[in-house]
Amino acid sequence: MNDPSADLALQKQQLRERLRFRRKHFAANLDAMARLAAFRIVPQPLAERLTGRDPVAAYVAWGDEPDIVPMLAAYPLALPHHGDRSDAMSFCRWTPGEALAKGPWGTEQPCEPSGPVEPALIFCPLVGFDRQGNRLGQGGGHYDRYFADHPAIPRIGVGWSVQEVDALPAEPADMPLDAVLTEQEFIICGETL
């Protein structure tokens, strides 16, 4: 008899491979003007929620992920941080231009974290998404665990439009997004925004 969780894990891994391929080729073929124009303006429903006092959780783009730091540079920012591989993810304040260090998972994070902060909004990278708010991440579950521990914080996935699929397989631990931002549109998925 087949293990349904193993089948779901295999489905997700195959989707990750296909969607990473799409993302890589899409980003590689963007011309310079399109790249400069993408992800530079905060969508109005989000701008209304940003006070300028509370930090906004962002991320440092890795590889062909969309770079959202320029779009959010006017706001206080926080980046994901891991003390080591066994630590839960937290967010620590960071200002563009401050030094970054490789974290235990290879992502850029603040060198000298100021201590965890709770962001007003969370912008998170993704590998895939659907319009129901399902997000396919890298597979570590770091964002899902943070989302589960902080369910009131709005969650906005960020990706290229080619990363959209009709439906993603979801498990009970997969936390849905409230919205998705692509270079083409702002998609509201939940009722929190």
What does the secondary structure layout of this molecule look like, with pairings?
Blueprint: H1 4-28, H2 32-37, H3 44-47, E1 56-57, H4 69-72, E2 77-81, E3 90-94, E4 100-102, E5 108-110, E6 121-125, E7 128-129, E8 135-136, H5 142-149, E9 155-158, E10 179-181, E11 186-188
Parallel strand pairs: 1-2, 1-6, 6-9, 9-10
Antiparallel strand pairs: 2-3, 4-5, 7-8, 10-11
Tell me what the structure shows.
By secondary structure, the protein is α/β, with parallel strands linked by helices. The chain has a single domain, classed as 3-Layer(aba) Sandwich (Rossmann fold). Strand 7 and strand 8 form a beta hairpin. The longest helix is centred in the first third of the chain and has 25 residues. Its cofactor is Mg(2+). One of its GO terms (biological process) is folic acid-containing compound biosynthetic process. Its EC number is 6.3.3.2.
